[in-house]
């Protein structure tokens, strides 16, 4: 695990530091978030494996069709091989007197007998060839049929196994997210506030928030905070709630928040009202749901509250960015670092 200095430099955290983070997080939100993210990643990996396997199975299907066509062709070939001999035998049976074989059968030694003998020789050799070809083609038929059956069985088995695994992982992921939502609710977060569903506080869906432009995030991807009217992206919100509980434990009251997610319109308004103290509209971390402005003492540089947050915020993924120390100087501005948060 790592932490960050005020300049944003990564530093390794000791086991004691990790234990301290757990003690600071009475709602166990950080562990629940990690569990949810791990479950989501396992589900994503299994789904990818299924997609790859399905591609393999598609190839197997093609192989199966080829083998079935080969089987059909082999059957036709066997029928063709048998036909000349069958025709000859049939013609002999159709001649009551033995047809061309009669002279030979009667013992006459002339040209007719020689032809009859030739026909008999052809008949015998043809029979042997047909039997040999029939045996070979029959074995080929059997092998093709076995291969086709094995491909069918393998396909059904693999699909069933992967589907069962994905179903199990999906249920586990849903269970973990539900537990996280329940933990947030117990801490006073109204996860269904404003008509949104609990999915807005699902940390595994932050990629959905990343699809929207800065300042244009819909309610469906913004998780409410304990502070009424304030909201952030799911991962930032969960980490902030955990940080807020640690702050409450230390100071006996929750953190004071003056601003959180900021729409594009709000960014434009503040930019023109407070030139030099707000990012260019569309470039603020507030517009990504990853920043808060704090009050209640934190906004006073080197106050007890500021120093505590500077020392402990990193344990939850929250930092006071380097620029906010001097250009412009904004002790009240704090940001969630997703990369740092993912390492907690």
Descriptive tags:
single chain, 344 residues, two-stranded antiparallel sheet, Muramoyl-pentapeptide Carboxypeptidase, domain 2, alpha+beta, 2 domains, Zn_M74/Hedgehog-like, four-stranded antiparallel β-sheet, 9 helices, rod-shaped
Explain how this protein is built:
It is a single chain. This protein is α+β, with helices and mostly antiparallel strands and 344 residues long. The protein has helices at residues 15-24, 29-94, 102-105, 111-186, 206-209, 234-251, 264-273, 304-312, 338-342, and strands at residues 2-4, 10-12, 222-224, 231-233, 256-259, 291-295, 318-319, 333-336. It has two domains: 52-179; 190-342, Muramoyl-pentapeptide Carboxypeptidase, domain 2 (2-Layer Sandwich). A hairpin with a 6-residue loop joins β3 and β4 (231-233). The longest helix is centred in the middle third of the chain and has 76 residues, at 111-186. InterPro entries: DD-CPase-like, VanY-like_core_dom, Zn_M74/Hedgehog-like. Residues 1-25 are annotated as: Disordered.
Short description:
Helix content is 59%, strand content 8%.
- Low-pLDDT parts are 1-21
Order of helices and strands: EEHHHHHEEHEHEHEEH
- The number of helical elements comes to 9
* CATH fold type of the largest domain: Muramoyl-pentapeptide Carboxypeptidase, domain 2
User: In the residues, how many domains can be counted?
Assistant: 2
CATH architecture of the largest domain: 2-Layer Sandwich
- The overall average pLDDT, rounded, is 81
Distance between the termini: 6 Å
Main sheet summary: 4 strands, antiparallel
Would you state the CATH class of the largest domain? Alpha Beta
The amount of helix comes to: 55-70%
Rough outline: rod-shaped
Strand order of the largest sheet: 5-6-8-7
Strand content: 5-15%
Coiled coil: 29-63
Biased composition (Polar residues): 1-21
Organism: Sphaerisporangium flaviroseum
Domain D-alanyl-D-alanine carboxypeptidase-like core: 231-338
């Amino acid at each position: 695990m790592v932490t960050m200095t005020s300049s944003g430099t990564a530093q390794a955290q000791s086991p004691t530091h990790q234990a301290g983070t757990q003690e600071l997080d009475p709602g166990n939100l950080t562990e629940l978030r990690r569990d949810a993210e791990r479950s989501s990643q396992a589900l994503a990996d299994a789904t990818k494996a299924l997609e790859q396997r399905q591609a393999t199975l598609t190839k197997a299907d093609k192989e199966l069709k080829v083998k079935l066509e080969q089987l059909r062709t082999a059957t036709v070939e066997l029928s063709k091989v048998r036909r000349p001999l069958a025709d000859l035998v049939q013609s002999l049976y159709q001649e009551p007197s033995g047809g061309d074989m009669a002279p030979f059968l009667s013992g006459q030694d002339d040209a007719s007998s020689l032809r009859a003998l030739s026909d008999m020789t052809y008949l015998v050799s043809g029979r042997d060839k047909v039997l040999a070809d029939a045996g070979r083609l029959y074995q080929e038929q059997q092998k093709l049929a076995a291969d086709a059956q094995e491909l069918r069985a393998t396909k059904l088995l693999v699909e069933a196994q992967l589907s069962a695994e994905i179903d199990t992982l999906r249920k586990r992921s849903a269970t973990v997210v539900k537990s996280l939502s329940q933990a947030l609710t117990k801490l006073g977060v109204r996860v269904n506030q404003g008509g949104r569903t609990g999915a807005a506080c699902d940390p595994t869906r932050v990629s959905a928030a990343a699809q929207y432009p800065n300042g244009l995030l819909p309610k469906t991807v913004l998780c409410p905070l304990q502070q009424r009217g304030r909201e952030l992206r799911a991962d930032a919100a969960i980490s902030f709630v955990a940080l807020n509980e640690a702050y409450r434990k230390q100071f006996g009251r929750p953190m004071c928040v003056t601003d959180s997610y900021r729409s594009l319109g709000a960014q434009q308004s503040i930019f023109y009202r407070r030139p030099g103290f707000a990012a260019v509209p569309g470039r603020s971390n507030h517009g990504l749901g990853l920043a808060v402005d704090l009050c209640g003492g934190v906004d006073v540089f080197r106050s007890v509250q500021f120093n505590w947050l500077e020392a402990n915020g990193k344990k939850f993924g929250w930092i006071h960015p380097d620029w906010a120390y001097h250009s412009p100087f904004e002790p009240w501005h704090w940001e969630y670092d997703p990369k740092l948060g993912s390492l907690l």
